[in-house]
Each structure stands twice: as structure tokens, then as C-alpha cells.
Specification:
The complex is a heterodimer of chains A (116) and B (114).
Chain A: E1 5-7, E2 10-13, E3 19-24, E4 31-38, E5 42-50, E6 53-57, E7 64-68, E8 74-78, E9 87-94, E10 106-107, E11 111-115
Parallel strand pairs in A: 2-11
Antiparallel strand pairs in A: 1-3, 3-8, 4-5, 4-9, 5-6, 7-8, 9-10, 9-11
Chain B: E1 4-5, E2 10-14, E3 19-21, E4 24-25, E5 31-38, E6 44-50, E7 56-58, E8 64-68, E9 73-78, E10 87-95, E11 103-104, E12 108-113
Parallel strand pairs in B: 2-12
Antiparallel strand pairs in B: 1-4, 3-9, 5-6, 5-10, 7-8, 8-9, 10-11, 10-12
The chains are: A mainly beta (116), B mainly beta (114).
Amino acid sequence: DSGVTQTPKHLITATGQRVTLRCSPRSGDLSVYWYQQSLDQGLQFLIHYYNGEERAKGNILERFSAQQFPDLHSELNLSSLELGDSALYFCASSVRGRGGLGETQYFGPGTRLLVL
Amino acid sequence: AQSVSQHNHHVILSEAASLELGCNYSYGGTVNLFWYVQYPGQHLQLLLKYFSGDPLVKGIKGFEAEFIKSKFSFNLRKPSVQWSDTAEYFCAVNRAGGGNKLTFGTGTQLKVEL
């Protein structure tokens, strides 16, 4: 158990819908990262938040957005869902993540999203 | 663009066989290197990491990896695999100036047969 929690574990929804995935980082970690794992794209970085502020964006679609709250938990919002958004969404956390090296990211159990 | 290559997509070994999984990256600057393992139906777990210092790093469950800077490689090894090592293995790189994002390889699916 990494100490990173994600809810829900599984989510089944229809095309065009909107869902929210939740992540709680390890105690004391200020950074939260979101990754998408799909069969065709592999593991891809989506977005990074540090202490409530967006720090970096990766291959995140405009239909997707995220935020990190004052208690440091984070939510990933996926809207206008398409079949191709079906994937495993992982959250990871690290202590600082202000841009320097020498940090380890610890991953949560993931949310498996199925869009029908 | 930075990329991470894992050349072996599927590996099948018998128990007690030795394992070596290749990982190469394309970035020439300072990097941090990681190997993560994903057991069936589970999340990514850190096996080992290299930040600096001794290029031979030891991780959990008897795994080790060697960083060879001149070859841009960070290969994972285990002298004797067990059935319980059946999993998918991912190499990941975090580079200086690249923010904190991890760039992952495509993964190697390892199956260990009894």
C-alpha cells in the first residue's frame, strides 16, 4: 500500500457524460500527478499540481481538467466522454515536486473507467 | 522529444532463470531513472530508482539495475526469477528541466512458468 488513495475503483458511464475521479496523496506530500494508462497509448502523464497550483501539463485533452484543493486532495474531471477515454487513471504523489530531481512518485491503485 | 524504449514487450521464463530487461532513454542531460512493477490488477509499485552515485542500484525482491550513462541505458536484472515475479515492468525517466513528469516506456510483460 503506497498511501495514495483513489476513488472510485471502477466507473462505468456512457458517452457524452461527465465524471470526477478523486485522489488523496500520501500524508505530507504536496504534489499530485495524474496519469492515463491505455492499451494504445501506454502510460501517459496528464497533469501535475503542487500545493494547489498547476505546475505542468502533459497530454491532457481540453475536455479534461483537474484541481487540487486546500486539503491537498485532487480531482480529475473528464467531460463529454468518448469511447476512447476508457482507460486506467492513476494518481501519484510526491513530497515536493517543485521541479527538482531526486523525488519518487508513489502511485495509487487507479480508477478504471469504462465508457460505453 | 524525450522517449523511453523497452525493447522486450513479452518475456517468458522458467522459474530460476535469470532476467534482464532492457531500457534506453533518449535524453542526454541529468536524469532520474525508475523501474516500476505492476502485478495483475494492481497499481504501480516502485522496484528501484537511480538518482546519483553508484550506478548499480539494488531494489526490492532481489531486483537490481545498472545505469550506463554512455549507453543511455538502465537495464533491470534478477539472477533467479520466481513465479510470483509474473507482472508488467515499466521503466520511467524524469529529466532535469522537464518538470516532474515521468516518461514511461511501453512496458515489458513478464511471465514466469513453473
